[in-house]
Amino acid sequence: MSTKGMSSKGVNSRGRTRGSRAAITGIGVIAPNGLRADSYWKSVGEGLVVLDTISREGCDHLPLRVAGEVRGFDAAGLIEERFLVQTDRFSHFAMAAAALALDDAGIGRGAPEEPFDIGVVTAAGSGGGEFGQRELQKLWGQGPRYVGPYQSIAWFYAASTGQISIRGGFKGPCGVVASDEAGGLDAVAHAARAVRRGTGAVLVGGAEAPLAPYSMVCQLGYAELSTVEDPSRAYRPFTEAACGFVPAEGGAMLVVEDEHRARDRGAPVRAVVAGHAATFTGASRWDRSREGLAQAIRGALDEAGCAPEEIDVVFADAMGVPEADRAEAGAIADALGAHGSRVPVTAPKTGIGRAYCGAPVLDIAAAVFAMEHRLIPPTPNVYDICHDLDLVMSRARPAEPRTALVLSRGLMGSNAALVVRREDDSAR
Amino acid sequence: MTRRVAVTGIGVVAPGGTGTTAFWNLLSSGRTATRGITLFDPAGLRSRIAAECDFDPLAHGLDPTLSQHADRYIQFAMVAADEAVRDSGFATGAQDPWRVAVSLGSAVGGTTRLEHDYVQVSSGGQRWDVDHRAADPELHRAFCPSTLAATVAEQFGAQGPVQTVSTGCTSGIDAVGYAFHTIEEGRADICIAGASDSPISPITMACFDAIKATSDNNDDPEHASKPFDARRNGFVMGEGAAVLVLEDYEHARARGAHIYCEIGGYATFGNAYHMTGLTCEGLEMARAIDSTLDQARLDPTLIDYVNAHGSGTKQNDRHETAAVKRSLGAHAYDTPMSSIKSMVGHSLGAIGAIEVVACVLAVKHQVVPPTANYETPDPECDLDYVPRTARERRLRNVLSVGSGFGGFQSAVLLTGVGGRKR
User: Fold this and answer.
1) Among A141, B65, B75, B390, which is least packed by CB within 10 angstroms?
2) CB contact under 8 A, B270 and A186
3) Could you tell me if residue B420 is inside a domain?
4) Mutate which of A138, A157, A288, A418 to disrupt the B interface (most B C-beta within 10 Å)?
């Protein structure tokens, strides 16, 4: 096995070898195009477009009309009442996705035998906006005594990690990356490093609920936001018609687990988090993100011990802003060389929008499914591209991807790259 | 082999004065910086006291544009980072920018600004369908939490991993911990690490009013924060920022940098019990402390000082007293343990970093800062809390602990140079 980037060798308190690989053993998804991982993958594989006019209360007067909205989500059916009342919609998504990921990993929902062996890490980019707005309205409309006791725990970025830890009885390392989009990849890498340091498993991911009225007002200042009202034209990265990105809600949680722990309990290793790197090149400095993203890709490949030619599919950031798209195409070419124009590239998020920190975690989920189902999902709504990329458009393409590169950039200037590999290839 | 991590620079903006000199003067004198709230009219609130910073960004050399437009917590972080970077003596242009990282924490981030602008767009809390035409087009900078680390990274030319950490009251320790891992694992040579918060706003004060976590000693604000004292009745809100420059030990040596101390270990665990509540056993905090000692291969009897979370709530003080006894055993009774929150209040996410800087200064001066206002012992809190007066002591290995939101419990260990056994 590759040992690069997995520096510390030793034995932790449970006799587990430090430096063992971080396996993905469970996936939970709450997304605009699916309320389970398998239904999400079905929609992604079919290139289903669910971008639509926003229906959330109090939003119809705003100049942002189209988004990827999670509809039909039954929070009360998925989350116990006592947790429900003290949490915002973004935590509902994260808690529901976490439970689905645990089920998928076969870990179950009972109290864990070794509570310190399971940690929780989430990435958050928008916090509990809807809950916060409601309490702000009580404070300023009625007075301080009308602010409820749960505002202190629902509004802030750390809410989802804390509630998932409490609900599941997980006492392992807990973390919160409060970030722009790329934080989703940073969180997964953070979890993988915790596993390499000796934690048995980490529930990790990101879920967002940025479609409350005041949260939307805050986002209107993003120059990259698409305000096109036709859902089929609003988010078309890599084309001449690129006019910005469409926001979305939802996200995904993964179980990232020590491969030996997974094997010991007979759980299938679906993929391995093999490498990651992150750089920073300045908010909205898309020209500079070319160099930053290329540097991140090189770092992730280096940590994974992976040559550029071994990358079988790239899940693009696909910002949808002409100069950002140009920078991303350039970064892929710079970091992967001639392979950059041959490797299939896809951006399934054009069908659902960008769920901020949740977006790249959804891409990791799609990458795992793509490797399992031997199918590269398409980039919906995108037809004529103006960059030298082999972008998978119109329909899914049969292939045998074994190594996937997931890219993400944030509106505040972060660039991140993460490599996931199929287990059977990387177990050497 | 993992790399050793050195502290080569420190900077702080705290109640009672800006800069490490003013900060240390306050801590070593045992004076308090808590007072009646002046940043807004607190009428109608239960707790109307706080530890505020008398902060003049222009006087501290902050760029006029930032002084005018950046959120208060960002301004704090910029001034603290500037002091830390100057103190460490690294020239930003002389470093490989891809090898310079940023890791900054904040519990509530831009929420003070978000509240301010909310009032405008909602006609004073009268409408759910807020009016975007009344909003500042720069409001997304308050909405997006990574604005903190991004702004500091831009200023100091950092192009390596740049992250913002938000784990509530442990954000500051955790941001330093993430930075420690970043250097230890070789992902950067230098990391600008710390935390900032400016939570003294109506909504945040009302939040903590609602759960009665804050002190209502409104008539005697100077003596309101009384950690470990039997008469304590909650924490006093604070604000501020602290930044450290963490650096690969060999990198620091090669450029001849002054090394204050090393980071010997860091750990965090969850109590999986309650978002704001604690058990009286202290099991998870003890586990975090034990882990840092294991990482440094240090015997608990070699701990010279514990900088307590010491928020001044009854459950916290008992919880952490139990935790420290669990980890240090009988040595806990011989180990001074104080809370600087008695003097500078509890600045939520920022305080963890402010306390780490206080520990660095304590090691530098070989002086333990006191717990101000401590007079009446609580029978359930029977350790040496260093009442009211600073104390000279040989300080080599120092722990700082944090506890709070989400049930998160974190610990960081500072060791004298070469103290980390490898």
Assistant:
1) B65
2) no
3) no
4) A157
For residue B45, give the CATH number of its domain.
Answer: 3.40.47.10
Asked if residues A340 and A297 have their Cβ atoms less than 8 Å apart, the reply is no
Domain that holds residue B230: 5-110+145-415
B415-418: long-range pairs with CB below 8 Å, 24+: B415/B261, B415/B262, B415/B263, B415/B264, B415/B296, B415/B298, B416/B261, B416/B262, B416/B363, B417/B6, B417/B259, B417/B261, B417/B262, B418/B262
Q: What is the pTM of this model?
A: 0.96
Is there a domain that residue B129 lies in? Answer: no
Does the predicted interface ipTM exceed a cut of 0.95? Answer: yes
Which contacts qualify for B63-68: CB closer than 8 Å, 24 or more apart? B66/B151
Write the residue in A86, A171, A281 that is nearest to B271 by C-beta. Answer: A171
Portion 139-198 of A in contact with B at CB < 8 A: 139-145, 147-149, 151-153, 155-159, 161-163, 165-166, 168-180, 183, 186, 190, 193
Note whether A82 contacts B: Cβ–Cβ < 8 A: no
**8 Å CB contact of A151 and B274:** no
Q: Which of B132, B207, B270 sits opposite A165 (nearest CB)?
A: B270
Residue ranges and CATH numbers for the domains of chain A are: 10-264 (3.40.47.10), 271-423 (3.40.47.10)
Dmax over Cα atoms in chain B, in whole Å?
63
**Distance between start and end Cα atoms, chain B:** 9
* CB < 8 Å to A176, chain B: 165-167
Render each residue's pLDDT in chain B as its tens digit; 422 residues.
589 999 999 999 999 999 999 999 999 999 999 999 999 999 999 999 999 999 999 999 899 999 988 999 999 999 999 999 999 999 888 899 999 999 999 999 999 999 999 999 999 999 999 999 999 999 999 999 999 999 999 999 999 999 999 999 999 999 999 999 999 999 999 999 999 999 999 999 999 999 999 999 999 999 999 999 999 999 999 999 999 999 999 999 999 999 999 999 999 999 999 998 898 899 999 999 999 999 999 999 999 999 999 999 999 999 999 999 999 999 999 999 999 999 999 999 999 999 999 999 999 999 999 999 999 999 999 999 999 999 999 999 999 999 988 999 999 999 988 655 44
Residue contact B159–A213, C-beta within 8 A: no
